[in-house]
Specification:
mainly beta; 7-stranded antiparallel β-sheet
Length: about 100
């Protein structure tokens, strides 16, 4: 999973998330790519909403829905933690670390 964020005000597009989920047996990528808007901020936590969603692999027969919500909290200089509430699926990473 890759999350790309930039500065934005509430209600604006703030970035996107790209997930790669490999299906056992076929190796197909069943992940989704979502455009994220900043919905809320609370101190060091933020809530993002997927305003658009499409299969990461356009040839995959995957239904990706918009409207998913994600809560991320800044827990270190280069670390965000994904909250328990939200639309993440089982097996999603609980922590995201900045890479350059």
């Amino acid at each position: 999973m890759t999350v790309t964020l930039h500065a934005a005000d509430r209600g604006e597009i703030v970035g996107r998330q790209v997930s790669h989920v490999t299906e056992d047996g076929t190796g197909r990528d069943l992940g989704c790519t979502e455009t994220l808007s900043l919905r809320e901020t609370h101190g060091t936590s933020m809530v993002f909403e997927a305003v658009s969603s499409a299969p990461t692999d356009p040839s995959a027969d995957v239904v990706c829905v918009r409207g998913n919500l994600y809560t991320l909290a800044k827990t270190g200089a280069d670390t965000l933690t994904l909250g328990n509430e939200g639309s993440q699926t089982t097996g999603s990473p609980s922590r995201l670390t900045r890479s350059s």
